[in-house]
Amino acid sequence: MTFQEIFNEDGLYTSDSFHKGVCYQVEKGNLYFVQYKHKDDISPLIENALVYKQVFNIDYQKVFTRQSLFNKK
After folding, report:
1. How confident is the model at residue 73 (pLDDT cuts 50, 70, 90)?
2. Which end of the chain, N or C, is less packed with Cβ atoms under 10 Å?
């Protein structure tokens, strides 16, 4: 899924190149940077995302559970 495609559906999105616990949140056309401290964190750090050119070349996957953000290799 490309960066442009993640704006088609609200939700959380991550990439293999992201750190564990980190994802983007798309909500009503707005992009946020979300960072969970651990897999059971229910109050993550949420900030407006600063976008850089490389985000258009990353392959994204939909996040279904916050715990899956900590199963990265």
Report:
1. low
2. C
